[in-house]
Design brief:
The protein is of the alpha/beta class. The protein contains 15 helices and 19 strands. Strand 5 and strand 6 form a beta hairpin. The N terminus is likely disordered.
Length: 535
């Protein structure tokens, strides 16, 4: 009899514990909502967005328009309201599209053998230059560093109106390695700000500046995203001729062809600058021709807005913004840059996060604060869509609690080839240690990913913290967190395609994104900015 009673008591206790555990699972609202972020749904989104039909989604292109329609139709399907322009899901963004029609340099003749190719022997940024069908001269002036400063000047009283000058990058240093302008090892703005020399040349009436670039191929590689396709800027572009002299970055081969027989004089002038800090110009007789013909047009893109209004009468005025860019590189001839990982993966993830928040609202369990799931355009053109929103927010920027940004989360890099369940976390502690803790706790409780902060280090040579859309929010003092899987051999290539995506990994990261955003949107107290000096 005692044994029977003991068994009954044990079973009764077990049933209570089981029912409590079941209740905890049922009551864990965010965990249940996160389960709506599935491999199947992510696959469906990304297979469409990264298809050839969408032509690489380049900003301003037909493929980009198809992508924004897909996103807005999905927001409509899941019941989100239209809060954009003209009762739509869109925030229009105006761009100026600039591209070289022809860019060439000829030295000592007009034959094909006298021609130097753009993006091979020289590079030139179309947005920094006025349209100049042809500039011909029989003289180029070597002018040291092209600096005009009270502490050091290459210009002096020289009349350089209408001239072409050739200058070194950087600024003159003393024997001890100090800048002759700052007096310290730290460079002045004449080195760190490219505009300074072009504005000074414009003021002096110089027609064009040729910067001698010792490692031109490295410069081209680092700026390829701005040089291969059209360059875009926000709004209508100011005519560069009103601000800058025209310019090119030339190889040492071009510099030598221009210098010709005057090499000894140039070396002597360079030695004088280095030894005494005294500038000396050299007239270089050469038949020089520069062609910089541009195509310029304005076009409109759109940020796509998925809004979930908060349920708390007071807290709903505050907004958590979740972002990913949906644009990519587009087409080059018949080649399609599908951009499955960059950033079809982030776009698909944010669509699923929006769906989870929408489902919460349908169940009467919506977030207390409002959530804006925004897919931005123009990231590949210089973070332009997010910059436009940060400068022209739909909701007051001071009411923006945090930005949660997702950019490239569908692949596995070499470091984690044997452990795909990881994510690089960038920026979480740059402005708010609380944001960092929220993400850590969400991961510990729900997803158990390896959180890698390698690219969050202040000395990260890749500078990823400054290279995705979250940075435009961080610049406004808004805590921001950026989820990233690292780069791979297919980055910015036609081989970044859907079949290489790890959707299981994407789904787990999507859940972490949701849980972090959920906590930000629901906790009683808004997170605080409590870090200075790291942004």
């Amino acid at each position: 009899m005692k044994k029977i009673c003991f068994v009954l008591i044990l079973l009764w206790n077990y049933s209570i514990l089981f029912s409590q555990a079941s209740k905890e699972v049922i009551d864990d609202i965010p965990a249940n909502l996160a389960e709506t972020i599935t491999v199947e749904d992510l696959t469906n989104h990304l297979t469409t967005l990264a298809s050839d039909e969408f032509e690489g989604r380049e900003t301003g292109s037909e493929g980009n328009r198809k992508a924004q329609e897909y996103i807005s139709n999905y927001f409509k399907t899941i019941g989100l309201p239209t809060i954009g322009s003209n009762n739509s899901y869109y925030q229009p963004v105006m761009f100026t599209w600039t591209q070289w029609k022809e860019a060439a340099i000829y030295i000592n003749g007009d034959k094909p053998s006298d021609r130097y190719k753009h993006l091979w022997e020289f590079l030139s940024f179309p947005n920094r230059n006025a349209d100049m069908p042809s500039l011909e001269t029989n003289e180029v002036i070597f002018l040291g560093y092209g600096i005009d400063d009270p502490k050091y000047s290459d210009y002096g009283n020289k009349d350089l109106k209408g001239k072409v000058i050739m200058v070194y990058q950087g600024e003159p240093l003393t024997k001890k390695g100090n800048s002759r302008i700052t007096g310290t090892p730290a460079p002045s703005e004449w080195t760190t700000n490219w505009e300074k020399k072009l504005k000074a040349a414009h003021k002096k009436g110089v027609k064009a500046v040729l910067f001698i670039e010792n490692n031109l191929q490295k410069e081209i590689s680092e700026n390829r995203r701005f040089l291969v396709g059209p360059k875009m800027t926000l709004g209508e572009q100011v005519d560069p001729s009103e601000v800058y002299a025209n310019s090119c970055y030339i190889s040492t081969n071009i510099a030598q062809a221009i210098i010709g027989k005057k090499l000894k004089k140039v070396k002597k002038a360079r030695k004088k600058i280095k030894k005494r800090g005294k500038s000396r110009s050299v007239s270089l007789p050469v038949d020089f021709k520069l062609i910089q013909k541009k195509n310029v047009r304005t076009l409109e893109g759109n940020n796509v807005l998925g809004f979930i209004e908060g349920s708390d009468p007071k807290l709903k005025e505050e907004v958590v913004v979740v972002t990913a860019h949906y644009d990519h590189l587009g087409k080059r001839g018949d080649d399609v840059y599908n951009g499955a990982d960059d950033n079809g993966s982030g776009t698909s993830t944010v669509l699923e996060v929006a769906q989870a928040f929408s489902e919460a609202k349908k169940q009467g369990q919506g977030p207390r604060r409002s959530v804006l799931c925004m897919l931005v355009t123009g990231e590949e053109k210089g973070l332009l869509g997010s910059q436009f929103y940060a400068e022209n927010p739909i909701f007051p920027i001071e009411n923006t609690v945090a930005n949660v940004n997702v950019d490239m989360v569908g692949r596995v890099d070499k470091k984690y080839a044997d452990n795909p369940n990881y994510v690089y976390v960038i920026g979480s502690d740059r402005l708010s240690t609380e944001l960092h803790d929220i993400n850590e706790n969400a991961n510990s409780k729900y997803t158990n990913l390896v959180l890698d902060y390698t690219y969050n280090e202040d000395d990260d040579p890749n500078r990823y913290y400054y290279r995705s859309d979250h940075y435009n929010f961080a610049e406004k003092g808004i805590p921001a967190i950026f989820y990233f899987n690292g780069t791979h051999a297919d980055y910015h290539r036609t081989s970044d395609t859907v079949e290489k995506i790890n959707f299981e990994k994407m789904a787990i990261i999507g859940k972490l994104v949701f849980h972090t955003a959920w906590q930000l949107a629901n906790q009683d107290k808004r997170i605080e900015v409590n870090v200075t000096g790291r942004n």
